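for ur thesis appendix - Activator of HSP90 ATPase. copy paste whatever u need, i formatted it the way the template wanted (i think)
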Amino acid sequence: MTIHQEVHLKSTPKDIYDLLLNSARFQAMTGGRSAHISTHEGGEVSIFGGDIEARNLELVPNRRIVQAWRSRQWAEGIYSVVRFELEAEGGGTKLIFDQNGYPRTAHASLHEGWPKMYWEPMNKALMHH
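the 3d part is after this line
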């Protein structure tokens, strides 16, 4: 089971990379639910008030974020891998997103959740930045 989504955002790869890894900006973007995001490879991430836990696997500034990512609702020890690839494109950025290794039962909610919880709030946050 995999999810592949591509979205065009009206900002620079640098700004989007910062938004995804800046605890204060991410918290504001997601309606104020607490966010603690390490900006180091191997560092821990807790977002959406602790509902989502992750660990940074690979960070390439302004290009790529790869995380081991899980919902607290999943069985212990179950992690998916999420990858955000950023490419400058026509005055904005193409974000190429992939997720794999999540529980089959989570597919529908994740597939709908990324646009609702990430891409739409990100577009709003980037426009006001």
